[in-house]
Amino acid sequence: MRRANDTIFALSSGRPPAAVAVVRLCGPRAGAALEKLIGRVPEPRRATLVRVRDSESSEVIDEGLALWFPGPRSETGEDMAELQLHGGHAVVAAVLGALGKLDGCRLAEPGEFTRRAFENGRLDLTAVEGLADLVAAETPAQRRQAFRQLKGLIGDRAEAWRGRLVEALALVEARIDFSDEADVPENLLEPALHAAQQLRDEIATALDDGGRGERLREGFVVAIAGPPNAGKSTLFNRLARREAAIVSPYAGTTRDVIEVHLDLAGFPVTLLDTAGIRESGDPVEQEGVRRARARAGAADLVLWVVDLSLSGNSGGDREELSEIGTDSNIWLLMNKADLAVEKLCIRNESQSIQQAFVISAQTGAGVDAVVNTLATYAKDYFSAGEAAVVTRARHRRALQDTVGALDRALAEGADGHEELVAENLRAAATSLGRLTGRVDVEDILDVIFRDFCIGK
Ligand code: GDP
Whose CA is nearest to atom 11 of ligand 1? Predict the structure, then answer.
């Protein structure tokens, strides 16, 4: 059971064996634990060479560096220590074992260090999310966005907005509370509404970003689709094998759709192979097909592959293409050009096709042109406009709620309903507070920290 008073510890570095292992400790007994293991508490924030001993047998386990970060100026706000050890299985196991034997010390749960930082006010909720995104970032653009968020791009802005809202609210409340008194000016409502209007417009502008921030977190989704045997899997494998581009060493395989994460010119592209989409009588498979279709239909871009060597296939077939969501952008990839050069005659029967390429997934001819065009497309998409403030659906909902409440406040203000203006300004401030984790967050905390690893 998680208790706020426990001293927690964990291996914070990657899985052993590794050159170095970092074990972190946090909580009221962190100093006492150091006394037991290394015989002293080092000078604050100075790397100190120490011998780590088992607390019971006094046997030396390893020699390494110890760091001491007394609270409240530590990452979590509590007393913290860090041991840098040799990164072997047995070393790490012995040190964690020695710590586990100490009173009031236990292994940390996933994300518990960060959770304490949040609970002690060292990080707001958007910074916590930024930290999670930074650890998960696979491309430079994702890393930059995550770092900006960690450093307060949205959190500080939300706090500033909230501060201005509270000031506007104070004006309206003063007007309500002291309306009988002679020295309270009549026109307090007007400046409050003016401020509310400005805030509303600023927040609406931040929301109007085409979803770029959310997309950058998750990757620009490109689905490879088309009729059976057109060469989708061959193309997917060719793209996934490009060592310069691939991010995750293994293609993640869900039952229905295989996906691989690519880094194209620094931007994340999630490539889906929908080759598994087949009609089937088996209800479980039908469900898989449905999900795969939905995933491809929701893609930002569909690469529609056709077999050029079959007659009549040199253009997008309207009927088959209509299976795909009409909102998607579609590029036509005419495959097996190695077999069919003499038949080449590009027809574009479908209005929805934006680009056409002649390729051979097997020989690789023409595939570079597709990749380069894709990289440019992703870059243009992500680089349009300023850095996105909103990076999660949670942020979007909170800001939309804020704008909604401000709109209601403005409407009530126009009718002179001071009480209702105040009520809606309060609701707007609450929505912003929810965004940064000031109010009402218990229910979302578990969801957010669930994604962390142990030791973070
Ligand atoms: P999918 O069903 O669309 O995924 O198609 P596959 O990738 O499984 O390919 C179907 C067949 O076409 C396989 O035998 C591939 O070797 C072949 N194929 C795929 N691309 C090419 C190509 O560019 N040229 C030739 N000659 N054969 C290809």
Answer: 229
Tell whether the model's pLDDT for residue 246 goes beyond 60: no
Q: In 208-360, which residue ranges form alpha helices assigned H by DSSP?
A: 212-218, 232-241, 283-297, 318-321, 337-340
Q: Tell me, using a 6 A CB cutoff, whether residue 234 lines ligand 1.
A: yes
Ligand 1 contact, 238 CB (< 6 A): no
389 burial level (CB within 10 Å; 0-12, 13-18, 19+): buried
CA of 252 to the centre of ligand 1 (A): 22
| 3-state DSSP assignment of residue 215 | helix
* pLDDT tens profile 45-87: 999 999 999 988 999 999 999 999 999 999 999 999 999 999 9
**Percent with pLDDT over 70 in the chain:** 83
Model pTM score: 0.80
Strand partners, 81: 25, 68
Residues whose CB falls within 8 Å of the CB of residue 98, separated by 6 or more in sequence, listed in order: 36, 37, 52, 53, 54, 55, 56, 61
Q: Give CA–CA dist 64/50, Å, rounded.
A: 6
Q: What is the pLDDT of residue 312?
A: 62
pLDDT at 363 over 70: yes
Give the model confidence (pLDDT) of 387-418 as tens digits.
889 999 999 999 999 999 999 999 999 998 99
Among the listed residues 50, 47, 13, the one whose alpha carbon sits nearest the alpha carbon of residue 35? 50
Within 13 A of 107's CA, how many CA atoms are on the CB side? 11
CA-wise closest residue to 398 among 390, 408, 387:
390
- Name the token pair of 300: 């930002």
Two tokens at 33? 């634990």
Cβ(347)–Cβ(334) under 8 Å?
no
State which amino acid sits at residue 140.
P
Question: DSSP readout, 387-444?
Answer: PPS--SHHHHHHHHHHHHHHHHHHHHHHTT-HHHHHHHHHHHHHHHHHHHTSSS-HHH
Neighbour-count burial of 386, counting CB atoms closer than 10 A to its CB (0-12 exposed, 13-18 middle, 19+ buried): exposed
- Sheet of 48-53, strand order: 48-53, 60-69, 80-87, 18-26, 7-11, 105-107
Query: Strands, E, within 257-366: which ranges?
Result: 258-264, 267-273, 301-307, 329-335, 353-358
Does ligand 1 come within 6 angstroms of the Cβ of 228?
Answer: yes
